[in-house]
Design brief:
Number of domains: 3
Strand content: 25-35%
Number of strands: 21
Order of helices and strands: EEEEEHEEEEHEEEEEHEHEHEEHEHEE
Structural class: alpha+beta
Shape: globular
Number of helices: 7
Helix content: 10-25%
Length: about 425
């Protein structure tokens, strides 16, 4: 893999090939091993991270960048393979940056993700708390209901590469005729769209690149970001929630695990004994509406007016009368709520960057009985967890969900309660 030359030649020269044994996987999906440096007297050794190398493997790797306390290297050869190494389904694996684990058996992916959550919990939050086994996706492949492939500005006489960023780069696009983690309907639409885009590019229509959208709602695949689509979420026998949202909006992209995921969040909030529920990042109302039957009243709060309108429409469409949705100002997210904090559970599902200090201060001032914290980035979740612990909350359950098989990503649900509540 072509890399820009590193600015430092210590401790390894650029493109020096080294051998090492990989001992673990980082939460970024990289194999990690250590190398004893010349003149180093004992110690654990210098950290080297190698993409697509698996724990237990002896590998040859080519260094392309040195940092202050670790180096990065490309995998050149697997000298001793892991017994859990398998043949990737996608021929582009290792070049396309979308997947990190197609070469690892799925049950081992789940085991490592659980271990990574436990390590983050220990190192970042100082908690030695049992992490439940990761709940896996019913579909390890063909599960993703939304993809956003890109293409760069076309060159005269050449078809543009339409796909995803090449591993380790920020601008080079790998041409992806088919994405193995996307649903079959998306792949069928992708094939037709690629031909159309290339024809338009040959006619000189594009002066710059663009990002495409493919959203599979189960009924059809749309490429129109502003089109309203509907997702059906089975929550139990005879109970199905129908949620409408815009194709471009954030919505969980693995519909096959979504029923178990939404039901778990509801059950954790209900188990607190709270009478009321607040969904503080409610979006189009997934958690609020999925949980409404378990509480006397439910309130969804969201800074986006358009999302609040969709949530209200979804409540009406599902005949849910005990849920209200308001557009809350970020500086006063809980203002106007009539629920007493001691009798309220709060669900939060913030962006990948986690919760900001202003939001956490408001949440702790409101003082809910319990909080169910949903996160797509356990690292920022563990950072925020320190604030909860300092505010007197205790973590009582940690449940990861694998919404993103074959990748390093996962969702983690942490349940927090105030002792004595």
């Amino acid at each position: 893999m072509s890399k820009k030359k590193t600015s430092s030649d210590r401790p390894f020269a650029y493109h020096l090939e080294i051998e090492l044994t990989v001992t673990t996987l980082t939460n970024l999906g990289l194999g990690l091993g250590r190398v004893a440096l010349e003149g180093q007297d004992g110690g654990p050794g210098w950290v080297v991270m190698v993409a697509f190398a698996l724990p237990g493997e002896r590998v040859r790797a080519r260094v392309f960048r040195n940092h202050a306390n670790y180096s990065e290297a490309d995998l050149v050869e697997v000298l001793t393979p892991s017994p859990h190494r398998i043949e990737p389904r996608c021929a582009l694996f290792g070049r396309c940056g979308g997947c990190q684990y197609q070469n690892l058996r799925y049950d081992e992916q789940l085991s490592w993700k659980r271990r990574q959550v436990a390590e983050l919990l220990s190192h970042m939050a100082g908690l030695e708390l049992g992490v439940s086994p990761v709940i896996g996706s019913p579909r390890p492949f063909g599960y993703r209901s939304k993809i956003t492939p890109h293409f760069n500005a076309p060159r005269p006489g050449r078809d543009p590469a339409i796909g995803f960023l090449r591993q380790g780069t920020r601008s080079e696009v790998v041409d992806v005729p088919r994405c193995e983690i996307a649903t079959d309907p998306i792949n069928a639409r992708l094939a037709a769209a690629r031909e159309e885009i290339r024809g338009r590019a040959q006619s000189g229509e594009f002066e710059r690149g663009a990002t495409l959208l493919f959203r599979d709602s189960g009924a059809k695949v749309t490429m129109d970001p502003g089109e309203r689509v509907t997702e059906e979420v089975p929550l139990g026998p005879g109970e199905t929630l129908r949620l409408g949202f815009l194709a471009r909006d954030f919505f969980q992209n693995n519909p096959f695990i979504l029923p178990a995921f939404a039901s778990y969040v509801r059950d954790q909030a209900r188990a607190s004994g709270a009478r009321f529920l607040v969904d503080a990042y409610c979006g189009s109302g997934l958690f609020a509406l999925a949980s409404a039957a378990a509480f006397e009243r439910v309130a969804g709060v969201e800074v986006s007016e358009s999302s609040v309108a969709l949530a209200r429409a979804n409540a009406a469409a599902n005949g849910i009368a005990n849920a209200v949705f308001t557009a809350g100002d970020a500086s006063s997210i809980f203002a106007g709520l009539e629920f007493p904090g001691a009798e309220t559970a709060v669900v939060i599902d913030p962006p990948r960057r986690g919760c900001d200090e202003a939001f956490l201060a408001q949440l702790f001032s409101f003082g809910p009985r319990a909080v169910v914290y949903v996160s797509c980035d356990p690292a920022t979740q563990m950072r925020d967890l320190r604030g909860f612990l300092a505010a007197g909350y205790a973590a009582t359950a940690v449940q990861p969900f694998d919404l993103f098989p074959q990748t390093r990503h996962l969702e983690c649900v942490i349940t927090l309660s105030r002792p004595g509540a």
